[in-house]
Design goal:
Largest sheet: none
Number of strands: 0
Strand content: under 5%
Order of helices and strands: HHHHHHH
Shape: globular
Helix content: over 70%
Length: 178
C-alpha cells in the first residue's frame, strides 16, 4: 500500500506544475487533467471515486465503531448506556445512533478537508489508547496471547510516540481556522 501511495504521489508531482500543486485542494483529480486525451473525463471520474471512497469509509466507521463502544461498555470500560442492544436486531442501537448523529453533524457543518482532519485525529487518538492498553492487558492474570511480541515494550513505546507525533501534527492542522 505504501508503494502504491508513493507511486501515486510521484505521478501527481510529475503531472502538475508545482505552483498549482501547492494551491490544490484535490491534487489527484486536478493532475489527471494533464494526461493527454483524458482531461475532464478522468478528472470527474477521480472526483466521483474519491466521494465514494470517503462515504464508504464513513459508513464503515459507523458500522464498526459502535461495536467497539459496545464491547468496551460491556466490559465496564465505557459508559454503560453504550452496552444497550436492540431487542429485535441485536445491534448496539444506542451507540449506532450516537455515531450516525455525530457523523451527520460533521458532514453538515464541515468541509471535506476538516472532516478528514478530524477523522484522522480521532483515529490516531484511538490508536494511541489501543497501544497503551497493551501495558494494562499484559498485567492481567487471564492474559494468554497466541503470540508474544519480542521487545514489546520498545515497539509499543515507538508506536505510541509515532502516533502521538502524527496526532499532534494533525491537531495543529485540523482545528477550525479563523
Amino acid at each position: 500500500m505504501l508503494a502504491l501511495y508513493t507511486l501515486l504521489a510521484i505521478c501527481v508531482i510529475g503531472l502538475m506544475p508545482f505552483e498549482e500543486l501547492i494551491n490544490s485542494n484535490a491534487a489527484v483529480s486536478e493532475a489527471v487533467k494533464y494526461i493527454p486525451g483524458l482531461s475532464e473525463i478522468a478528472s470527474s471520474f477521480v472526483a466521483i471515486t474519491a466521494i465514494i471512497v470517503i462515504l464508504g469509509s464513513l459508513s464503515s466507521c459507523i458500522m464498526f465503531q459502535p461495536r467497539l463502544e459496545y464491547a468496551m461498555a460491556k466490559d465496564g470500560l465505557f459508559f454503560q448506556r453504550f452496552a444497550k442492544v436492540h431487542p429485535k436486531y441485536e445491534t448496539p442501537s444506542f451507540s449506532i445512533i450516537v455515531q450516525v448523529t455525530y457523523a451527520c453533524i460533521l458532514v453538515c457543518f464541515s468541509n471535506l478537508t476538516m472532516l478528514l482532519g478530524y477523522f484522522t485525529l480521532i483515529q490516531l487518538v484511538i490508536n494511541i489508547m489501543d497501544f497503551a492498553a497493551v501495558y494494562k492487558c499484559r498485567k492481567r492474570d487471564d492474559y494468554n496471547p497466541i503470540y508474544r511480541m519480542p521487545m514489546w515494550r520498545l515497539t509499543t513505546v515507538l508506536a505510541i510516540l509515532g502516533a502521538s507525533w502524527l496526532a499532534w501534527g494533525t491537531f495543529t492542522w485540523a482545528p477550525i481556522k479563523e
